[in-house]
Write a sequence for this structure.
């Protein structure tokens, strides 16, 4: 009888060991997003303990999910840019500019779908321009993209003289029904943003472009020796930011039925914070799309959570700083610096 049991016990031990190795491998490969998720979980536990009644209801989560997609469309492409070793500070103005084109087309009486296509083309074109200025003129992306942000925002203000564009016709449009209406109580834009995050994660981790982004960010000279067009890879990351900014601008306009000349400005610091809270380091070559998405979720919940917990709005910036610093410290301890 014991001889019959031994093979089964051995197989069980081997299966357990294989499962253990798989779990350890998963944790090791996803330390940054898991760390970001842990920070989010602790933060939500604190908010829930502070006011169980508010945080046990769906309404507060629905309010966050209404505007969170705008941040996700901005954060995810920025992970690519930071990983490639650059930074793009022009995304708020790119978002506002693309949304402006969308508003102008719709306000002129054309189809909202045509306006969305025009906005996407505009965003990607602006990304191409910004990336080309940085890469082919060999400029600092930090300074150059900040300058481009001012240039684009200045064009918007000059052309519109600070006046918004009301788009009440969007309320009954099929574009809003598909992309910004509730689906079983969940804002549709959050589902589209989730699909965008999944697509970007696959692009970053499973596609040749994502591999090239990491290689270029880690060692551009080695990337050139491998036959990678380093400059074009860098430019493509800026084009991707333009695409994300355009989608963010379209969704923001669909939510508010109004385009404002300041569209995008309020996302500047929260979006940048989300990238780094999510676990993407500043030195290039390493990044996490899923972590960036979790970082955006964390940052988006801070203001709502602070108010929902019963504190005044004066505490928001304080908790912003605390969460960001604790997240960065946690990521610094959680993963080795590769460069």
């Amino acid at each position: 009888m014991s001889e019959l049991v031994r093979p089964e016990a051995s197989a069980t031990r081997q299966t357990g060991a294989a499962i253990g190795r798989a779990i350890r491998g998963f944790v090791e490969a996803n330390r940054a997003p898991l760390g970001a998720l842990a920070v989010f979980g602790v933060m939500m536990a604190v908010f829930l303990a502070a006011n169980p009644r508010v945080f046990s209801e769906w309404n507060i989560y629905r309010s966050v999910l209404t505007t969170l997609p705008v941040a996700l469309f901005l954060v995810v492409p920025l992970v690519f840019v930071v990983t490639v070793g650059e930074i793009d500070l022009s995304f708020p103005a790119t978002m506002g500019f693309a949304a402006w084109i969308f508003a102008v087309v719709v306000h002129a009486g054309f189809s909202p779908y045509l306006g969305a296509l025009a906005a996407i083309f505009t965003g990607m074109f602006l990304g191409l321009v910004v990336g080309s200025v940085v890469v082919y003129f060999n400029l600092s992306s930090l300074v150059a993209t900040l300058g481009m942000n001012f240039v684009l925002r200045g064009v918007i203000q000059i052309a519109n003289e600070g006046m918004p564009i009301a788009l009440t016709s969007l309320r009954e449009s099929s574009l809003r029904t598909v992309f910004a209406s509730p689906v079983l109580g969940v804002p549709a834009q959050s589902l589209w943003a989730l699909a965008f995050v999944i697509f970007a994660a696959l692009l970053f981790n499973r596609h040749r472009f994502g591999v090239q982004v990491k290689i270029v960010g880690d060692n551009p000279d080695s990337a050139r020796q491998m036959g990678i067009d380093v400059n074009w890879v860098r430019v493509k990351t800026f084009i991707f930011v333009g695409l994300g900014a355009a989608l963010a601008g379209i969704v923001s306009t669909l939510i508010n039925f109004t385009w404002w000349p300041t569209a995008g400005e309020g996302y500047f610091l929260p979006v940048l914070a989300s990238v780094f809270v999510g676990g993407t380091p500043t030195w290039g070559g390493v990044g996490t799309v899923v972590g960036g998405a979790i970082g955006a979720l964390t940052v988006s919940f801070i203001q709502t959570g602070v108010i929902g917990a019963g504190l005044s709005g004066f505490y928001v910036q304080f908790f912003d700083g605390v969460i960001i610093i604790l997240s960065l410290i946690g990521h610094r301890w959680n993963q080795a610096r590769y460069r």
Summary: The mean pLDDT is 90.
